[in-house]
Amino acid sequence: MKETNTFLPVDEALRRIAEQLPNPQGVEQLALRECLGRILAEPITSAINVPGHDNSAMDGYAIRGEDLGAESLSLIGESFAGHPFEGECGPGQAVRIMTGAMIPSGCDTVIMQEEVEREGDSIRIIGEHKTGENVRLAGEDMAIGEVVLQPGKRLDPAELGLIASLGIAEVRVRRRLRVAFFSTGDELCSLGEVPKEGQIYDSNRYTLYGMLKRLDAEVIDMGVIADIPEAIEQAFNEAAAMADVVLTSGGVSVGDADYVKQTLDKLGRVDFWKIAMKPGKPLAFGRLGNAAFFGLPGNPVSAMATFYQIVQPSLRHMQGVETQPLRLRLPLIGGLKKRPGRTDFQRGILVREADGSLKVRGRGHQGSHILRSMSEADCFIILPAESGNVGEGELVEVEPFISLVGEATGIKKPPPSRAAVFFRPKIKA
Ligand code: AMP
Ligand code: MG
Q1: In the structure, what pLDDT confidence band is assigned to residue 322 with cuts at 50, 70 and 90?
Q2: Which of 85, 100, 158, 300 has the fewest CB atoms within 10 Å distance of its CB?
Q3: What does the pLDDT look like over 88-118, one tens digit per residue?
Q4: How high is the mean pLDDT of the chain?
Q5: What are the φ/ψ torsions at residue 225 (nearest 5 degrees)?
Q6: Is the dihedral of CA 315, 220, 402, 368 positive or negative?
């Protein structure tokens, strides 16, 4: 166990953690509907063309492009979606066609019905047209042999539909990560218990539960563990035996009950870091047997911020997901106080201006014990370590909570860059 006395930048912490994360295997094959929110474990290759045949994008008339200049064309039949025209359409002929219906043999162009005058079985085309218009080509969406989804892709509604359109009924997905978590601290009281003098209700187990569920993890809530060395050791052992990840909150700052550190030192390889982020300075990370261990700070906002910024990307990494939440640069309304040194994750509120543009303002009281700040805010305002106070109108980096929950942006993580490290930690001898 090492203790550092300098701040470790968030990027650097993520890089070090990534090097030590376990790589839990395990895949299950599920019916397509069961795969919503799961992580794809195999590439999805198209065995068919989608669409399967050239078809019409409009209700209208299918013709041969070379007939575009003709005075009139004679109507020889109809093509409906699911009921194609069986014959051949020759020169000077046209086929009545509906959206999604197969383009008849011989035709390559569809004229929308609003631009056609019909008299009995004769049609006349009005206006300027081009060969090929209003025709959707076979394989235009997905062509035979094309890899349309890569492993590591989270399966959202669009992906379910995409896979269904290929006729695939079952998919191989990564098994869910199992995450065991508990709280430490004699001041903590669980719901249903009567708090003694000086006790508070344990809220972190509820925020952690929520954030883990949103990540589609299998959660194992082990409750509050008392500050008794044997109880702590037993809890760590049990947790590490059944989970891929062990998560605790509280007890990682200097001056905290020493047996958490002692126990971790005895059971595994755990470092205690001071992360250059605010809120959320103290963090413990390491391995307990095959499990990854994260010890989050106890303050409720710190626990959430370190979860979102450090645990969540790490869990995603363990599942082979390489996307990151959406970050925007938006003008600030009002100012924000900040001291240079650590990266701030201030809580902010997105504001839609009358002209439709988006801005952001701070949520007010930023104390790491004010959990309401997380509830009332809808984004993190991320102020880089070296930044001082920020003024009205300045551009700030914003991470909407909705994108932390959904992570549906598909923005690729930039490769970890050592150049971006501002505070290189020095390990004290
Ligand atoms: P610690 O990180 O253990 O020093 O705790 C920092 C602050 O967070 C203290 O005020 C604790 O009472 C509070 N705290 C620790 N764990 C929890 C929890 N599970 N729920 C709510 N508050 C907590
Ligand atoms: Mg404590």
Answers
A1: confident
A2: 158
A3: 999 999 999 999 999 999 999 999 999 999 9
A4: 91
A5: -105, 130
A6: negative
- What is the tens place of the pLDDT at every residue in 357-402? 999 999 999 899 999 999 999 999 999 999 999 999 999 999 999 9
Nearest atom, ligand 1, residue 203 CA: 20
Centroid of ligand 2 to alpha carbon of 260 (angstroms):
10
Q: Listing from the earlier edge strand, what are the strands of the sheet with 178-184?
A: 3-8, 269-275, 282-288, 291-296, 245-249, 178-184, 218-225
- Euclidean distance between CA atoms 274 and 12, whole angstroms: 12
Q: Return contacts of 222-227, CB within 8 angstroms, 24+ apart.
A: 222/180, 222/181, 222/182, 223/182, 223/183, 223/190, 224/182, 224/183, 224/184, 224/185, 224/188, 224/189, 224/190, 225/182, 225/183, 225/184, 226/186, 227/184, 227/185, 227/186, 227/257, 227/259
Please give the Cα distance from 212 to 137 (Å, whole number). Answer: 43
Model confidence, pTM: 0.87
- Rounded CA-CA distance 205/95 in Å is 66
Nearest to 301 by CA among 385, 365, 225: 365
Beta carbons within 10 angstroms of residue 212's beta carbon: 23
Structure tokens at 162: 């995409």
- The structure tokens 């923005």 sit at 411
Q: Are 103 and 94 in contact (CB under 8 A)?
A: no
* One-letter amino acid for residue 259 of the chain: Y
From the CA of 299, give the closest atom in ligand 1: 8
How far is Cα 379 from Cα 345, in angstroms, rounded to an integer?
Answer: 9
Environment class of 208 (CB within 10 Å of its CB; exposed 0-12, middle 13-18, buried 19+): buried
Element at 147 (helix H, strand E):
strand 147-149
pLDDT of 1 strictly over 60 = no
Q: Amino acid identity, residue 379?
A: C
The residue assigned the tokens 């995409």 is 162
Which ligand is closest to the CA of 282, given by its number?
A: 1
Q: How far is CA 333 from the centre of its chain?
A: 28
DSSP alpha helix (H) spans, 215-308: 229-242, 258-267, 300-306
Decide: 203 in ligand 1 pocket, CB within 6 A.
Answer: yes
